[in-house]
Structures
1.
Amino acid sequence: MAENVKSLRRRVRSIKNTKQITRAMEMVSAAKLRRAQDLLMAGRPYASKLREFMGHLASSAESTHPFFTKREVKRRTLVVVTSDRGLAGGFNTQVIKKAEAALKASPVPMELVCIGRKGYDYFKNKPYKIVFQVTDMGGKVSGAGAAEIADRVAKMFLDGETDEVLLLFNSFISTMMYAQQLEKLLPLDPEELLGASAAKSTSAHHVDYILEPTPQRVFDSILPRFIRSRVYMAIAETGAAEHSARMIAMSAATKNCTELIDSVSLKMNKARQAMITKEILEVVGGAEALKG
């Protein structure tokens, strides 16, 4: 019985230590979330206006830029954005499941580009081809890193190594919510860039741009920046959603630790009470025996 009390006491001590760790991780994630959210909110207006501008520009000017070239899809590439670290609930699992479903449902061969260690660690043991991976971003959003990834994927499309590029990531909605988003990165479609409502507006109020020196030169300059912007925003969305998911997961873990401490403490107190009662009975029994 004494050994049982000691074991329960050690267990309570261990759970309290775990609670301190999860509580600290929750606070760290909350601080990182604020910074990541500020960075994301600062980038969204630029990305939105650039997307709208590209839609108007593409619909009002004839362009033969390869990014707009639609060809028969014989090969497809899926860019999967996950985090480098875990302890974030189902954050990475949900994206990985959706990516695997897309891979299985694709009627043509689909290759992978893994951004984030968790996605790469999962798919490297699966029968899917990984073109390249980036696993050293450390949860930080880097403009140079995003540009390098975007340029490499764009080169694959331009060289004919793939006919369509899809982008899958976790989109940040609020502190308590995020959702998986799958969108086509290449080839570009003017109507998709504008969106349904914007497309109707454009048809009613047609914008006629004068492009100098030539439309092709303008597209050559802007389109790579647009692709980089979309990859950058996907990584930024994932970063904010990751810290949100980890904060929620660590908050739940801290709450579970508190409940477990109460439960184990109750067992420990009952065991200790039973041990004391047994000792008292032994003393009383011994005294009675001496009297007899």
2.
Amino acid sequence: MTNVPAISTAINHLPTLVADAAATLVKARDAAEVLEARDLATLAYDAAKRAARLAKAKQAHDELIVAAHRAQAHALQIEAQAKIRLADEYDAAQERGEVSGGGRPAKTVPEQNGFSTPTAADLGLSRKDVHEARLVRDAEQAEPGIIHRTLEQQMERGDEPTKAALRKMVVDAAMRGLRGGRSKKRARNPLYEPNPAFDASAGIDGCCTRIADYLDAHGAEFILSGCLDAPMLERSVAKMTRGRDALNTILETARAQSNT
């Protein structure tokens, strides 16, 4: 019979699963890697869902159930972000003629050994996958932040953040967007050019702002009290130390640049 300490250990491992999915998505450079991130997020969600239900069945502390639900919410958000990227990348690949739009098989390309244009199935995507990804993308375009708000509202009500409840909100938002006459395709700025350095700098700025805001709002002791046991605290401290060291490296580089 599974005991509460075993459940606690399983739940404490969930942040690692979620972090792996998030890191994979951040590093993803093509559709295959985005798919991998989506699958890791799904794995984390399923593990969190099982842990939450087991914790309820064993009447574990509410803190353990909330921690499992929080992991579910984070996993769902990462999964949604991956779907948005998949929808954008798949549609862009279609426009470039790199993948087939489905339906009848694409005509073979002459003088290339009869190879056909790849389909969604060739890329590891079913028609349902593409449809779901476009729904999430369209919902976020129609009502930016709808995914995050829906998950946070579920958590605030004490409800379990589930795929079914999130999908209902996504479909409703996407339909509202269509009724409002919004285009499914994202408006493109013809002058836009990717700037990875700007994206990296803005990402660091955002992370630092959120850390400072959390500290101002709650204080250090409250933040650390979110760790459920000593091993979780140790892992959190190790991650914070790594972040501190990385930030120190950036600050030292900035000071060196300002002195030159």
3.
Amino acid sequence: MLTPADTKTRHDQHGRYPEARTVEAFQRNLAAVQARIHEACRRVGRNPAHVRLLPVSKTKPESSLRLAYAAGCRMLGENKPQEAHRKWEAMQDLADLRWSVIGHLQTNKAKLVARFAAEFQALDSLRVAEAVERRLQVEGRSLDVFVQVNTSGEASKYGLAPEDVPAFLKALPAFSALRVRGLMTLALFSSEAQRVRQCFVLLRNLREQLRQSAPAGIVLDELSMGMSGDFEIAIEEGATVVRVGQAIFGARPLPDSHYWPSEGNDKESLP
């Protein structure tokens, strides 16, 4: 019987997933991912119903997103606000399809996110909080947000340093349109499972510490962590949201280095 100590990353499969081209292929991929979620939960005695699967559709064409919707997906994750906004505009006939923006946000794109997103998972500065809040007030909307934490310590990654999160949270009640739901992180992209696991452990422990001192109205129920290659490890360490792209949609056309942050490369998150 496998135990958490046996769990490996699947980063060696990265870029090798076949592209899903039919509703049936999406259904198979979704079922396979859900089976992995259930097995990871079983190993640590968790209820799979407490883990939300967020399919990530970044870089994929509208036709693929419509197939995913037909296969049952009702929320999709996108990294780039402009790409996500474009897709939202094109797919407004799917009234119950919701959107989660999971990538870094520049303040000049805040108006796009405020217009259509149901969720924003990469809040990491007061400047962004102010910009999104201002646009949400104009739109008459509110937005679920996750605070992004840099648990790997890599300079190439976005997110707050863990020690900066308490003060950041204390400032967030001033933004009434932002509903803080939890924390998000992007782990090391490594085949060394223990190093990856340490990122998830750090986020879980930070959340537990912060719960003791979080301001009124700041809810830290959610931990968004884990992607196609490592979400089983994330679930074993308490993830409530896993962001899975390639294991559902198939490999992306560009090499890993285009998407994964590294020194000298654009910072970007890669589910």
